[in-house]
Write a structure and sequence with these properties.
The chain has five helices and no strands. The chain is mainly α. The protein has a domain of about 80 residues. Helix 1 packs across helix 2 and helix 4 packs antiparallel against helix 5. The radius of gyration is 19 Å and the shape is flat. The relative contact order is 0.06.
């Protein structure tokens, strides 16, 4: 799968309602058809759902314990770092010129400093990307 096909699958999966994990299913479908979709979906969902279920039971049972509260606070920076790394990886894949890099950085900045819905940033970025080449 090339960069463009991956970027398209990523965009479709994040534009569609529901969980963003649909991206894995779409990649499986792109690479191996219906069987690839089924295998990719099960492979990504079963381990994470099992882990989430076991963890939720443990947290529910030990809620309020100092170790659980410490673990919750410790995992916040890890989650934020993984999200940032994912965004940077997607920028490196999808942005091929200065305009798209500037749009990505401006969109990230808008989302960071604004309390507005991120869809406004995406709409503005789309408008700039469509209009700019015609100027």
């Amino acid at each position: 799968m090339g960069d463009t096909a991956f970027a398209n699958v990523f965009a479709i999966s994040h534009a569609a309602p529901g969980p963003n994990i649909i991206m894995v299913s779409l990649i499986g479908w792109q690479l191996a058809g219906l069987a690839g979709l089924a295998v990719a979906t099960l492979a990504i969902m079963l381990p994470s759902c099992t882990l989430a279920s076991v963890t939720a039971r443990m947290i529910g049972r030990w809620s309020g314990h100092w170790r659980i509260e410490l673990l919750k606070r410790a995992l916040v920076p890890v989650a934020l770092g993984l999200m940032l790394a994912s965004g940077v990886a997607m920028m490196r894949t999808a942005d091929h010129d200065m305009l798209t890099v500037a749009i990505s950085l401006a969109t990230a900045g808008f989302v960071k400093v604004s309390a507005c819905n991120p869809l406004w940033a995406l709409a503005g970025a789309t408008l700039v990307n469509v209009v700019a080449p015609h100027l």
